[in-house]
Design goal:
Layout: E1 8-14, H1 27-44, E2 55-64, E3 72-83, E4 87-96, E5 99-110, H2 122-137
Length: 138
């Protein structure tokens, strides 16, 4: 999960309802933060709306490093770090007040309307390569 190829940044607002009885963000909310960043990534990098995304999350791994102590903005740096034939891996780094509070990795499988695995679209691979190039050139 230390892959540096995270080439997109999303900001997600922490709400009061995300806090638990200890006054910090509930651990389950971290997965939701990754989900929101993933949807933003697909919208902004791959130009796909939420109803055009055809994959399922097959695996989620979260490493908590520090509690998020209050409401505010979380910055999530994310990118597709690896492509397989029918799957792809995304890496995430969650930051609050300039500190890394968690890292995560998800594996998604591209699927058809019946939920059967299909090849990851070539267009997605090309658009991700272009996004990486824009970051490398910046």
């Amino acid at each position: 999960m230390d892959d540096p190829d995270r080439h997109y940044e999303s900001t997600v607002e922490i709400r009061y309802s995300d806090l638990d009885t200890f006054g910090h963000v509930n651990n389950a909310v971290y997965a939701t933060l990754c989900e929101e960043a993933r949807v933003d990534y697909f919208r902004d990098v791959l130009d796909l709306g939420v109803h055009e995304i055809s994959f399922v999350v097959a695996r989620l791994e979260l490493d908590y490093r520090k509690a998020i102590p209050d409401v505010g903005d979380v910055t999530i740096v994310v990118g597709i770090t690896e492509f397989g034939r029918t799957s792809f891996t995304m890496g995430y780094e969650l930051r609050y007040d300039d500190a890394v509070v968690a890292t995560a990795e998800t594996v998604q499988v591209a699927v058809d309307e019946e939920g059967s695995p299909i090849e990851v679209p070539t267009e997605w691979r090309d658009q991700v390569a272009a996004a990486r190039t824009r970051v490398d050139d910046a």
